[in-house]
Queue: 4 jobs
Job 1
Amino acid sequence: MKNHPKRGVRHLMLALAAMLGLGAGAHAERPLPDYPDRPIRMIVPFPAGGTTDIVARLAAKGVTTRWGQTVVIENKGGAGGMIGTAEGARAAPDGYTLVMGNNQTYSTNASLFAKPSFDIARGVTPVAMLTRTKHLLVVRKDSPIKTYQDLVAAGKRQNLNYGSPSVGSSSHIISDALQRAAGMQANHIPYRGSAPLMVDLLGGQIDFSTATYGSVAGYIRDGKLRALAITGEQRDAELPEVPTFTELGLTTLSLDSWVGLYGPAKLPENIARAWSDAVASVLKEPEVINTLKAAGFEVWFKPYDEMKTFHLEEIRRWAAEVKAGGISLD
């Protein structure tokens, strides 16, 4: 059966729509005496249908059910997520505007833009981490490159071409870091999204890519792509034969993509904790876990108490690779 890059997203959205139509049956109750007393908006700084949007809608539905107050999704894409996140950062810190962002909006953008439109490090309140997805280094199945070592050897003999969904994407940053760490030469070919990238990778127009788990897992299972390495602390249970970058001696490449919840600076602590607790509860639901898994995500919850330290550390980690590669969105 012919594989289509957008098929997984379509199936996910259908499954999500069916799931959101089901009531959890839980008793709705305010987490605080006077909050919330009106609808809450959750900004997603990307178009509807993407992975961050899927996570946001799962969280919004779960919190709406628990609190008895509607959480409304507002998709505000543009400028690598800066438009939506900036609006969220400038909102009143009253708990009625939050942002479901990701590692691009709250980590890499801090160094990709010389002058971000708001202080990404200290101009927000990190509330909770929800999910993460690993990255896979992949080549087409019939490529003469069979292992990571083969890739390095080929890259030292000749200039290879690698693709990413866009300049400054996680895929771009990790692939650039890879070719620098391995001491090989590779040319970056940016695309307008994952779909055209996959067409050229499968067709042999580019040699390799570092892609998110959900975007390539189906191709690997169908025998159309070969995985050479994966991010993360340990090998993936679904792909046990694929070594981690750490195993290969590339410890700085253990960078994962994630989705997290943020509020404006000075968001009251009791409201931030209420959201953190509610999200933790939502992420325990089997339907939520299964939907996230189908999108290539794993539940990776971090509570409010851990988020500030995590947030600043992620900015530092991604900035090191962005600056070393001279990558910019200005």
Job 2
Amino acid sequence: MLPLVTLRGTPLEQGRQHGAQLKDRVAANIAVYFDRFLRETLLEREQVHEIAAQYAGHIERQSPEYFAGMQGVAEGGGFDFLDIVALNVRYEILYYQFGKMAMAREAQADGCTLFALLPEVTTEKHLIIGQNWDWIPEVQGAVLHTHEPDGLETLAFTESGIVGAKVGFNSAGVGLAINGITTTDDDWSRFSRPAHVRFYEILRQRDFNDAVKVITGEPRACSTNFLIAQPPGFVLDIEAAPDTEGFLAPVEGVLTHANHFVNPAELGVAEPPNPRRIYSRRREARLAELLLAARPTTLESIQTALRDTQDDPFGLCRHRNLAEPPEQHYVTVTSAVMDLDARVLHLTDGPPDQSDYQTFSL
């Protein structure tokens, strides 16, 4: 079961509560990630700390609130501050190395399939978004319910120890889902605002257009795909490469996206070689097929689609591929369905064909 943690006060105070209440889960994630940094990216602990220390100074200037949140997690749980920073910039470290190593055909990143459903294709006439978030099996998640000093609330899934929750929404109805994507131009050393800092800032916007500007307002170090939505029917998928963006909208009321650029040549980007990219395209197409066929969709039909195991173990509902070494194991860590009108979040703790959905609401 995913724990629900309520955070109040300043970013520093929220961080302390996060670190104290999720101490064991944060410690587990530190161990998992430093093992993966070594196994998958060949980075020793000292090297990871060097990267984290460089990023820390930039984050302090870019987002003092986020920096304070990281300080709070470290203080609240009694952790090395650079361990917490490393967790919070793990996207930049891992995805840059994924791309770099893929050029040498040593590693490939894949996983995650998201969706958006416009009100006209849902039985409740609500705006629904969600995803299967596929990642390292041992990662420990949590649900954060934050109460901001200005009255805004957020409800979202995070990896314990990471301040910027990545799948969720706020009390203004702004919702977020994400995919990892890569280009040959990704480079953590550009030190632009990290992905998880952007996730944090998106969920603290009250207006759809302001949320979009968090992504488009400046270049990025590494590529990320963002789905941003807000009732009554605002939906935009943004394929954000380091220096350019592509924009996608729903077709026939449905939008799906996975771990590839839909048209990289049109954007002028190059993706690292990945023999499993075909499965990303299949997942994207399969989820669209299932959701289009289910119109008007219900919560049950959406959850059934997210349990689909076609192309197992590389399907929508991801399972370990035991034929691969442990450092290349990925599963659906959580499956999310978000009703942005009702402000209700349904999440699993593990693959949805093996885990029940828990329901959280604002």
Job 3
Amino acid sequence: MRRHPDLVPLSREHHAPLRLGRHLLAGQGRDDLAQMLPSLSAHFRHEERTLLPVLEAHAEHALASRLRGEHETLASLLAAASRGECMAQAGRALIDHVRFEERVLFPCLEALFEETVP
């Protein structure tokens, strides 16, 4: 499925976190995580700045809450994983979050974008 042009950059940014998630599941990737933490944090902030207002404006409060909550949980888990703690749990959460965005959140947003186009 082709992504809405506004979502393509965010979708492309998901490739590296998926790979990182797999490495963390295997108990590896701690060095990669240290390098990726700043970009992951920036990605979360960008999504919250751009996607949350769209969701809230269309009364998609449950999705907005889930996005916000998963970002908070991931920030904590990834910080712990960077210290060598709960790496598999962080990896699973990261993979599940990307899948949620690609399979649930982005299709919903694309439908909302289509509704607003005359």
Job 4
Amino acid sequence: MRLLFITLAFMSSAVFAQDSKNPYVLEVDVSRVDKRIQVEASYRVPMSMCAAYGFLTDYEAAKNIPGILESKVISRAGNKVQVERLIQERILFIPIEIRSVVEYSENLNQSLDFYQISGNTKYYKGTWRLTNQGNMILFKYQSVFEPNSLMPNLVIEYFIENSIYRRFERMAENAYLYGQSQLLTCK
């Protein structure tokens, strides 16, 4: 009986340790380039390319990511989609709202290129790339933005760096759940 208890305790601690690892191989890097802040992130999710692309282009579902309060498609023409977003950041306990209209150029099952058309940041541009890695899809994100704030970029960079990992972690979790819901539709 004692041996059984020790074995179960060891096995449950091993399962707990496995769950606490980074299952999506999430990597996030925030750096400063002159007056702009660059964000690079990647994660891997077991899903089909069709489901991964569907996840990225479900613009209104972005509301499920911490900090994104609103996200709605305002126009669609060909492979161009304009999305209006309201994001809230907390920097030094001060809520900062960022409104923007971003235009996405969709490249079917491959990538999204985007840039800010209007909003209250000075500059925002980036890409999402999808790479098939067998039974996993690599999501790769790169963006550069320039805040329009009285706060020093160093302070903004610090707080973004500390909140952005959690956002990409949630994106990876949401991508996994989306992929599971698309098993019969996307093959």
